Each structure stands twice: as structure tokens, then as C-alpha cells.
């Protein structure tokens, strides 16, 4: 089955998906891009390579993401992919590019992807991953983009028997931010995890869309997405688990939990199961609610000021996603990042 | 074990679709096809007031500009709307003064279906047996409504909607289309233009309807679409429980059933609406069967009002149906309990919408889907909380059970929240019939078919419990019958 990505070319307004497209029902890209004042064909990605805290640093340039495969060859299992964009005063830059990474039999890669930047830009990047038998890819994605950015980050993943794909996405949103992952699940012991956490405030918009297609027997998928939304921010989670005919022994679980910190924030969730095989275990859960008053009361009754108690409970809500990262250095880095971002977030 | 044994016996007894017979009754048709003239014909046939004709014509115009929806997970051969009869009614022999004068052949149809149309038949039963009034709709017209007088004594109006349009035009005008507007969707617009009959219920303030009300829909004529319209209003503090049943003959052609049901609950009122849908599902190869494209919606307009939908969907070739609640009144409650069983080549795309607008509104969704054979069963639902719906709560559970390798089960929930104090929980699971449980049941001496019936009835029990007594027993049998031949 081919990956079903909505055709999108930033430089061709007729390709912009509207809300009439069911896949883009909650994220109106056409509207947002119409508001972008100008779309100069400019790229501000500075090509660079080097060492970054134990990672091989690859920074893309010239509108393309560069030769990622060559970077992987040099990375020795740890690659830092820097897609930060600096933008430029007074202009809105637009860039789009595609990159491809293939992991051979039994190869392992830890990939840290950094999407941050300053000022406004519109970006559309697509990464294609292919895993051979027994390969493993851990992908930690930091989406720390500027408030005015419009970004669509998409990826396709092909797994092979016995391979493992783990993805952890952390986002603070942007004017428009969509992170889409399409996985072709090879089954036969292959394992897929797609987790995420978001901290959204002001008018930030974050859309996390995942599609997993179980085509073969004995595949497992796990998903845990948690997040906080405040002010007038919007969180969108669209997950679909598709189990083809004959993909028996599939075990797939998906969970999305959102905390809303004030009225006027928005949460949209669409966790789908589409199942054509009978010997499967599939489940999804979705909860949306406010901070647990009882827990808050308990903390306060132990002498904790309300602000501190709130901050602690909110942190405790999203941190479990980061804590699942096996690599210690990476986990610490993400936990620090969350703490840093959360500083201004908890205060109501 | 008595219940299981009974189920099995029923299964054996009913090798095929029990209600698939055709009755030879002299009918009166409108010319085939759909045009403004046909709309006028139907309206004239019913002696409707002028405003009603205008309403219909506006709906027809609207319908022409709309497209048939294609987002549901169902595939079917599109209906040729010009190749249908929009009005088919048994020829009236003479003016009827009482039930005894109803065409005996018609009465025979209902006797065969087990629907008591003669009040004394109902009364003749066990003294403690609950009474229920029936409105029988045969193709395009309501042929009989029982217990009308007794209901009238307590102020309850229960009659055919065409009669209500003549007798209580102001009431109908006030509420008709106020829950499902003409432009709501393609099938609702079509229904508004050509609806022929259906039930009208009005329960005055503070009245608890003394008996269960029920409508029995029967499609008989060939190449006919059935477009019924039901409107139920529970005034302040009123209560009514309404049951709906449907069957149709076995035919090789697909037939269209596009109904609209509107419920209005004012302050402190409660409406319980139960459906046992057993339209002809088509044969094992998917030939024939009813297209069931239905719009059902309740408006919990008043504070503390409550609407509860319970449905058992076992029939129809294609089902497109989402009974919904608009929870407008503060502290209003919406409930949706559903069992959808598909077998053979059936396709069902069904679910609900719970739209929380008022403060502290609550809703609960329990959906159990069972798919077998080559069928496809989709739960599609929306739960949304408006920014002003502070304190609203929803609990959703939708479970799917798969029997066999060739069926499909889908879950497509939409959850939208705009308020911090809403609390929404949604759980869904998809599994197959447990081998262990099956083995255990068979090891205790049950045959495979019995064991499956037992386990499936256990799976749907949460919903069966919500059905009124008489329906629960029937529904349990239906579930077993629908799954017949699905194992092995």
C-alpha cells in the first residue's frame, strides 16, 4: 500500500488542503497560508556539520535537507538533525524539502530532530525512513518553532520484520504546526511506538496526525499522547490504526489525554480504528478534562501553595511521555527542555 | 440456560428472514418519479394546509441543489430517485369508523407480524401484561392507531402525522423541522419534500404517558421509497416511552427508507426512544435489502430534560443512521445505547452525536458492534462541548466484536472540547470472540452455535438491559438469528 500523503506544494496555492478535506478537517492550512503576507522563495537553512554533545550534527542547507544518508554514515548511531530556521526580518521565508534515511539489517540509529527558529516562515518538509530487518530507529523530535511559523512536517516509515521504530514528539505549537507520520507496519515481530507531548498556549496550533497500516501478522503498536492547552490554543490529535485482512495477531493500542487549563482553549481528537482481521487486539482511549481538583486539594492540604501544586501536577501529566525515552542523555535533555518551556506555562 | 435454548430454537425455526413475505393488497400509487408535481400530489392527498405544501416545495428545491453524502464507510449502488414511487397506499375501501372496518387483509399482515392492532387482543393477554398503543404505518400511510381515545383522556396526542397536520396544525407547525431543519442533509431534505406518514406524539405538561407508544413500519409495495416522519414533543415534566419496529418483504431490488425523527424535550421532560430495526438485509450474496438512510435527532431544549436512544440494528443492507442529542438545556442528559449486528454483505455506518451546549450537561454512549460474514460495521460518533458547556461530562464506550476472517469493524470517533471543565472519556476496543470462552462453553455441553449466541448476548447485555421488557426478549432473539451461520 502506498503512503497516502495529501499533495502539498507551498509555492502552489491550488494545492493547499482546505477543511473540506476530511484529513485536514481540524487544521485549516489553506486559510493560514492565505494570511501569510508573502511567500518569497527563500531558504535560510545554513549548511553545517560538526559535533553536538555526542551527536553528529547535520544542518540542512539550500532548501534541501542535504544528503541525510551520508550524515547517517558518519553519525555512528547518533545523529542530530538541525532544521532550525532563522528567517529574516520583514520577509516570510518559505522552504520545503525532502530527505531519505535507510537503515540496513540490524542497524541502530538515534535521531534527534530539532525544528526551531525565529521570526516567521512557512516550511514543508518530508522525511522518508526505511528500516531493514532487525533495524531500530529512535526518533526524538523537538518542535520549538516561533509563534508566527506555519509548518508542515511529514514523514513516512517502512518497517521490516523484527525492526523497531520509536518516535517521541515534543511540541509547543506554532501559528500552524502539523506533524504527520505514516507507518507501513511490516509485522512479524516489528514494533512501532509513536508518542508525543504538547504544551500549547496563546493561539498556538499543533496537529499530531499518525497513520499506522498493519499489513502483516504479529505486529505491535503503542501510542501515548499527552498534552496541556491553555489560553486560546488548539490541540489536534488524529490517529488511525488500520489492520489489513489477514494481519492476525496484531496488538495495537492508542491513548490520547489532554488537560484543558481554561475555557476558550480547544481540543480536537479523532482516534480511529479500521479493522479487517478478526484475531486482533485493538484499543483506543481518549480523555479530555481539567486538572484533578482532588489531587490539587491533597497537595494543598500538605502545605503546598496552589501555584506550586498546579505546576507539579501539570508537569507530572506530561513528563511520563519523555520518561519512556531509553537513551539517558536524550531523556535528560528532553526533560530539561520540558522544564524550561513549562516555566512560563504553568502560571495561570 | 432456558434463554439460550429458546434462542437456539428460534434460530432453527427461522431459517430465513421471517418477515420477508409480500402481501397482496390493492394499492394506490402516485406516478413514478419525483417532481414538484409529485410533492403537490402527496400534499393534496393528505389535505394539508397551504403552509405545509410550501414547506415541502422549498425542501424539494433545496434537495435538488444538494449532493448525496459519500463520507460514510458504505458502498452501494446509487438510488435512481426518478425510478421510485413516492406514494403508495392501500386503497381505502370506505370511510372507516372503527378498527373493525380496517381491511382484514391488512389486519392479517399485522397479525402475521405479531403486532396487536386490536385493542382487545392486547387486553386479552395476562392481566398484568403492559399495554402499548400502536401506530401502524403501511408503505406511505398510517393505517391504524390504537388506544387513541384512552390516551386522549390523559391529554396525550398520539396519531399519524398527516392527521396531526389537519387536527393540530399549530403544534406541528411550531415544532416540525425545528430539530432537523430542511437543509440539514440530503436525505432529510428529501424526506421533508415527500414524507408521507409517521407518528405524532404530544405529551402535555406533567403527564406521564400511561402506556408505551409504538409505531410499526412496514414496507410492502415494490419500487417504493418509504419516507416517514416522526415528531415527538414532551412538554414540561412529561414522560413518554416510544418503540419503533420495522420490517419489509424479501426482494432482489434495493428499497429506500429515508426517515426523519425529531424529538423535543422541554424542561424536566424525558423521552425514551427504542428501535428494533429489522428491515430485510438482502440475501447472502448482498442482493436486495433496504437502504436505511435515517436522520434522528433529539433537542433537549429544556433544563433537566432527558432523551435516551436505544437501538438494535440487525436489518437493512446499508445503514446510515446517527441518532443524536442536542443538549441545549442546562443539566440535560443524553443517552445512546446501541447494538449493531451485521452479517452477510450488510454494511452499517451508525453512531451518535452528543452536542453539549448547556451547563452541566451529561451524556453516555454505549455502542456494541458485532460483525460477521462479509459485513462491515462502523461506529461513527461525535461528542462536542461548546465553550459555554461548563461542567459537561461524557462517557463513551464502543466495543466491536469480530466473528470470522472476512468481516470488518471500524471506530471513528470525533471528540471536540472548547471548555476546560468538560470531562470526556472515550474507550474503544476491538476483539474477536474469545476462543477460551467458546471452548469453556462448549466443554460444558453447548453446541458451537449455542455457545456463540450465549457469548454474543453477554457482549451486548449492557444495551439489552436498557430496552423495554417486550423488546429485550425480541432483540435477544434477533441478535442470535442475525448471526446464524456465521461460525464454522
TrEMBL record, chain A:
InterPro entries: Fe-S_cluster_assembly_SufBD, SUF_FeS_clus_asmbl_SufBD_core, SUF_FeS_clus_asmbl_SufBD_sf, SUF_FeS_clus_asmbl_SufD
Pfam family, one: SUFBD_core
Signal peptide range: none
SUF system FeS cluster assembly SufBD core domain residues: 101-317
Database matches in NCBIfam families: sufD
Protein name: Fe-S cluster assembly protein SufD
Gene name linked to the record: sufD
Automatic annotation (TrEMBL), chain B:
PANTHER family: FES CLUSTER ASSEMBLY PROTEIN SUF, UPF0051 PROTEIN ABCI8, CHLOROPLASTIC-RELATED
Signal sequence extent: none
Domain SUF system FeS cluster assembly SufBD N-terminal: 152-208
Species whose genome carries this gene: Asticcacaulis aquaticus
NCBIfam families in the cross-refs: PRK11814.1, sufB
Annotated InterPro entries: Fe-S_cluster_assembly_SufBD (IPR055346), SUF_FeS_clus_asmbl_SufB (IPR010231), SUF_FeS_clus_asmbl_SufBD_core (IPR000825), SUF_FeS_clus_asmbl_SufBD_sf (IPR037284), SufBD_N (IPR045595)
Family: Belongs to the iron-sulfur cluster assembly SufBD family.
The SUF system FeS cluster assembly SufBD core domain, residue ranges: 217-459
Protein known as: Fe-S cluster assembly protein SufB
Amino acid at each position: 500500500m502506498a503512503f497516502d500523503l495529501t499533495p502539498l506544494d507551498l509555492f502552489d496555492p491550488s494545492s493547499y488542503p482546505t477543511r473540506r478535506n476530511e484529513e485536514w478537517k481540524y487544521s485549516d492550512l489553506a486559510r493560514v497560508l492565505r494570511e501569510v503576507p508573502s511567500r518569497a522563495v527563500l531558504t535560510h537553512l545554513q549548511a553545517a556539520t560538526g559535533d553536538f554533545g555526542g551527536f553528529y550534527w547535520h544542518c540542512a542547507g539550500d532548501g534541501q535537507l542535504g544528503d541525510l544518508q551520508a550524515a547517517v554514515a558518519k553519525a555512528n548511531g547518533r545523529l542530530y538533525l538541525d532544521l532550525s530556521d532563522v528567517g529574516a526580518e520583514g520577509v516570510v521565508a518559505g522552504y520545503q524539502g525532502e530527505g531519505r534515511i535507510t537503515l540496513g539489517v540490524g542497524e541502530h540509529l538515534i535521531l534527534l530532530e530539532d525544528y526551531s527558529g525565529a521570526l516567521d516562515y512557512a516550511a514543508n518538509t518530508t522525511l522518508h525512513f526505511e528500516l531493514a530487518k532487525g533495524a531500530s530507529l529512535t526518533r526524538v523530535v523537538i518542535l520549538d518553532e516561533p509563534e508566527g511559523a506555519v509548518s508542515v512536517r511529514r514523514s513516512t516509515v517502512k518497517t521490516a520484520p523484527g525492526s523497531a521504530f520509536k518516535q517521541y514528539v515534543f511540541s509547543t505549537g506554532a501559528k500552524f504546526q502539523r506533524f504527520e507520520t505514516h507507518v507501513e507496519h511490516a509485522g512479524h515481530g516489528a514494533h512501532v511506538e509513536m508518542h508525543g507531548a504538547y504544551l500549547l498556549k496563546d493561539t498556538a496550533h499543533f496537529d499530531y496526525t499518525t497513520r499506522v497500516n498493519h499489513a502483516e501478522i504479529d505486529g505491535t503498536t503503542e501510542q501515548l499522547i499527552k498534552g496541556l492547552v491553555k489560553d486560546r490554543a488548539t490541540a489536534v490529535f488524529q490517529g488511525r490504526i488500520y489492520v489489513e485482512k489477514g494481519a492476525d495477531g496484531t496488538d495495537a493500542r492508542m491513548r490520547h489525554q489532554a488537560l484543558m487549563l481554561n475555557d476558550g482553549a480547544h481540543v480536537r481528537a479523532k482516534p480511529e480504528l479500521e479493522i479487517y482481521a478478526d484475531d486482533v487486539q485493538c484499543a483506543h482511549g481518549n480523555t479530555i478534562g481539567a486538572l484533578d481538583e482532588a489531587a490539587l486539594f491533597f497537595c494543598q492540604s500538605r502545605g503546598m501553595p496552589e501555584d506550586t501544586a498546579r505546576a507539579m501536577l501539570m508537569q507530572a501529566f506530561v513528563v511520563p511521555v519523555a520518561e519512556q525515552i531509553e537513551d539517558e542523555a536524550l531523556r535528560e535533555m528532553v526533560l530539561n527542555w520540558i522544564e524550561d518551556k513549562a516555566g512560563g506555562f504553568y502560571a495561570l | 440456560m432456558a434463554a439460550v435454548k429458546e434462542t437456539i430454537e428460534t434460530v432453527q425455526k427461522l431459517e430465513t428472514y421471517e418477515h420477508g413475505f409480500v402481501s397482496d393488497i390493492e394499492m394506490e400509487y402516485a406516478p413514478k418519479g419525483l417532481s414538484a408535481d409529485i410533492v403537490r400530489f402527496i400534499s393534496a392527498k393528505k389535505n394539508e394546509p397551504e403552509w405545509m405544501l410550501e414547506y415541502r416545495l422549498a425542501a424539494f428545491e433545496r434537495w435538488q441543489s444538494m449532493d448525496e453524502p459519500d463520507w460514510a464507510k458504505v458502498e452501494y449502488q446509487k438510488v435512481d430517485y426518478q425510478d421510485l414511487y413516492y406514494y403508495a397506499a392501500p386503497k381505502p375501501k370506505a370511510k372507516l369508523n372503527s378498527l373493525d372496518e380496517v381491511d382484514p387483509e391488512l389486519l392479517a399482515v399485522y397479525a402475521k407480524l405479531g403486532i396487536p392492532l386490536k385493542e382487545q387482543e392486547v387486553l386479552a393477554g395476562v392481566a398484568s401484561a403492559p399495554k402499548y398503543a400502536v401506530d401502524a404505518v403501511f408503505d406511505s400511510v398510517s393505517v391504524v392507531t390504537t388506544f387513541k381515545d384512552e390516551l386522549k383522556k390523559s391529554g396525550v396526542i398520539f396519531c399519524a402525522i398527516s392527521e396531526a397536520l389537519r387536527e393540530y396544525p399549530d403544534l406541528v407547525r411550531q415544532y416540525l423541522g425545528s430539530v432537523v431543519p430542511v437543509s440539514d442533509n440530503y436525505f432529510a431534505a428529501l424526506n421533508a419534500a415527500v414524507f408521507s406518514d409517521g407518528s405524532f406524539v404530544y405529551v402535555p405538561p406533567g403527564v406521564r404517558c400511561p402506556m408505551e407508544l409504538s409505531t410499526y413500519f412496514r414496507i410492502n409495495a415494490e419500487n417504493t421509497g418509504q419516507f416517514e416522519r416522526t415528531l415527538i414533543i414532551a412538554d414540561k415534566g412529561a414522560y413518554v416511552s416510544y418503540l419503533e419496529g420495522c420490517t419489509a418483504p424479501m426482494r432482489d431490488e434495493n428499497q429506500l427508507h429515508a426517515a426523519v425523527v425529531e424529538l423535543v424535550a422541554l424542561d424536566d421532560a424525558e423521552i425514551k426512544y427504542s428501535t428494533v430495526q429489522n428491515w430485510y438485509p438482502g440475501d447472502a450474496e448482498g442482493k436486495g435489502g433496504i437502504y436505511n438512510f435515517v436522520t434522528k435527532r433529539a433537542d433537549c431544549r429544556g433544563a433537566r430534560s432527558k432523551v435516551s436512544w436505544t437501538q438494535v440494528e440487525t436489518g437493512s443492507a446499508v445503514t446510515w443512521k446517527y441518532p443524536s442529542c442536542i443538549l441545549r438545556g442546562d443539566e440535560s442528559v443524553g443517552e445512546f445505547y446501541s447494538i449493531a449486528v451485521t452479517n452477510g454483505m450488510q454494511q452499517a455506518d451508525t453512531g451518535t452525536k452528543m452536542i453539549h451546549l448547556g451547563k452541566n450537561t451529561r451524556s453516555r454512549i454505549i455502542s456494541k458492534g458485532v460483525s460477521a460474514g462479509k459485513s462491515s460495521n462502523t461506529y461513527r460518533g461525535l461528542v462536542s462541548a461548546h465553550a459555554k458547556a461548563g461542567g459537561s461530562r461524557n462517557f463513551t464506550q464502543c466495543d466491536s466484536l469480530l466473528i470470522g476472517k472476512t468481516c470488518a469493524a471500524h471506530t471513528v470517533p470525533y471528540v471536540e472540547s472548547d471548555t476546560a471543565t468538560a470531562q470526556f472519556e472515550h474507550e474503544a476496543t476491538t476483539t474477536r470472540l474469545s476462543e477460551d470462552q467458546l471452548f469453556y462453553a462448549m466443554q460444558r455441553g453447548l453446541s458451537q452455535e449455542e455457545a456463540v449466541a450465549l457469548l454474543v448476548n453477554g457482549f451486548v447485555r449492557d444495551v439489552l438491559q436498557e430496552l423495554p421488557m417486550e423488546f429485550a426478549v425480541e432483540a435477544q432473539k434477533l441478535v442470535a438469528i442475525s448471526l446464524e451461520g456465521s461460525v464454522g
